Amino acid sequence: MTLTSTPNQIGDSGTQTQYEMSGADALMDSLRRHGVDTIFGYPGGAILPIYDAVFKAEQEGWLRHILVRHEQGGTHAADGFARATGKVGVCFGTSGPGATNLVTGIATAQMDSVPLVVITGQVPRPAIGTDAFQETDIFGITLPIVKHSWVVRDPSEIAKVVAQAFLIASSGRPGPVLIDIPKDVGQEMFKYLPVEPGSTKPPGFELPFAPEHKAISAALDLIENADQPLLYVGGGVISSGAHEALAAIANRYQIPVTTTLMGKGAFDERQPLSVGMLGMHGTAYANFAVTECDLLIAIGARFDDRVTGKLDTFAPKAKVIHFEIDPAEINKNRVVEVSVLGDVGISLVKLLDLSNQRKINPRTSNWLNKIKNWKNDFPLIIPPREGEIYPQEVLIALRDLAQDAYITTDVGQHQMWAAQYLLNGPRQWISSAGLGTMGFGMPAAMGVKVALPKEQVICIAGDASILMNIQELGTIAQYKLNLKVIIINNHWQGMVRQWQESFYDERYSASNMSVGEPDFISLSKAFGIEGIVISERDNLIPELQKALENEGPVLVNVNVRKGENCYPMVPPGKSNAQMVGISDIKKKV
């Protein structure tokens, strides 16, 4: 590597060292400068020059590359890594099918505002547009599901593009970005000039504005004059690290707190002020609270349809305050009385600062008593200890046995039961919310465990979802990732079956998974992973405890009742107050 001296090109006086190296080596050095020490990926022809540089980086000892078994698994693993740590997740894939296999994971991250840098190999520059072997326009394919994307046609642009990519992915409302690098760009030698983090930004890029004092004052006026306020908390509180400020506001004004699926962990659900999750499968008391509140304080939430139910009946008696970093979300689904635009963590701290200058007189005692009565009358179902194992029992047992675990989930009934019954801290609940991606849970758990090897990590899966990325058992085995996979096995696509029962006159089309279901224990053991099957209630807690105490990865297959439905449930087109399953709650408690 040849060193030369050249005038500094990033705004400082003096000179900066240039290095003679390939585009691939420049990429790896740029990633290192941005704090990257872990990459999830899968090699292929077009990305081989970059993987040659990966080999060198691993030899130098600063990088760990995790070889996944499918590129989708790589994006979900990087996603789990990012959600658990707050850092930017990084994944690699080659051109053509390698790149298109990344799409579902990119869309998952986009919907849930997760910062990812996705790097794909591409056919050489002269071959672009010729329908060359394994050529796809991944730049065009992913345009609707990324914050920004680049095709790097000059290796001298790599350092700048990487710096911009990390800035865009992690700033404002986080999200995924894509960098597509033709094979010959990775091979080409050039004089590399490093670009430090934060030293360059793309044209038109602006960091979020600071929240306005006038808006914060108006929000505080509404809070102080509300009799039945409700804090409606989304994933923005998690990504901004605003959970402590949120707790301070809730306790100061004695305001109950409900969270979205993405917001789980932002507020301690063991606290009396918590009413749990709201929406389609939220708690009855959360949905009653949002229907009856006179002030809805939305923080880092986007009024998603699974939360609101029939939109024009959502919080019908309430004025609305919206704390939000993304101006596109303001008045998108619900017109609000006060909007506070900016980082919600900063906004909440400023709200507290202003509040400290005022006299506090909480007026919510009657409101809290009303909610307490709803909690008593409509609690979450505690299943009877008879017959087949209820799926809820599994989640209750895990709640008691693994109170501090990081939880990932797949998508379906088991996801909703996990959201209802498990109690999580900030960043300890990791689930595909916006896109509802089956197969997300296990690779996401891999990312969490790689990022936080000393933490307990559990994936809650369904027997249908787990099959979508079952091949990642190979990754778990290769890297000896001590995580636990718990399959809630009802032998159906459970949520599909529930909808077919409720809305399609019990016409169970293509939702029964019994025929063709693998022997999960034999399958896990084929990968060299311990497997446990639980079918009897007496074995549930002892066998779960055994699995959790095992020092290696374990897959647990729990056979549960086949026809159990997830309640409460807000039917499509109904208001949150029109839940079904309330009578079942009354019967079973």
Give keywords.
Rossmann fold, alpha/beta, single chain, six-stranded parallel sheet, 36% helix, 589 residues, 3 domains, 18% strand, globular
Structure commentary:
The N terminus is likely disordered. The radius of gyration is 25 Å and the shape is globular. The strands form four sheets. A six-stranded parallel β-sheet has the order 4-3-5-6-8-7, with helices on both faces. The protein starts with a strand and ends with a helix. By secondary structure, the chain is α/β, with parallel strands linked by helices. It folds into three domains: 190 residues, Rossmann fold; 165 residues, TPP-binding domain (Rossmann fold, 3-Layer(aba) Sandwich), CATH 3.40.50; 176 residues, 3-Layer(aba) Sandwich (Rossmann fold).
Describe the structure concisely.
With 589 residues, this protein is an alpha/beta fold. The N and C termini lie far apart (72 Å).
